[in-house]
Design a protein that fits this description.
three-stranded antiparallel sheet, single chain, five-stranded antiparallel sheet, 8 strands, binds zinc ion, 85 residues, 9% helix
């Protein structure tokens, strides 16, 4: 079972201090780009995993401990974050 990227917005915002839902993520595996909110998020494990909608490769992993957030972005070729003009 998965949910959309909005489900991961809270934990990622806590770790990064920004809202990633409108960020454009490019998959390192297949090269497809899409907004983070449309990724497939699996949040029932010990962490949160966002997967590519096209090829199912892992884009982003986030694990939170009591004192730290561990963020693995190696599955994303790039993350384009819109900034206020
Ligand atoms: Zn992909």
């Amino acid at each position: 079972m998965f949910v959309d990227g909005n489900a991961a917005a809270g934990p990622l915002a806590e770790a990064l201090g920004i809202d990633l839902t409108t960020a454009v993520v490019t998959c390192a595996g297949c090269g497809v780009s899409g907004v983070f909110a449309e990724t497939r998020v699996y949040d029932q494990g010990p962490g949160v995993v966002a997967r590519c909608r096209s090829c199912e490769a892992v884009l982003i992993r986030l694990v939170r401990t009591a004192t730290d957030a561990w963020l693995d972005l190696r599955g994303a070729r790039s993350v384009r974050i819109p900034l206020a003009p």
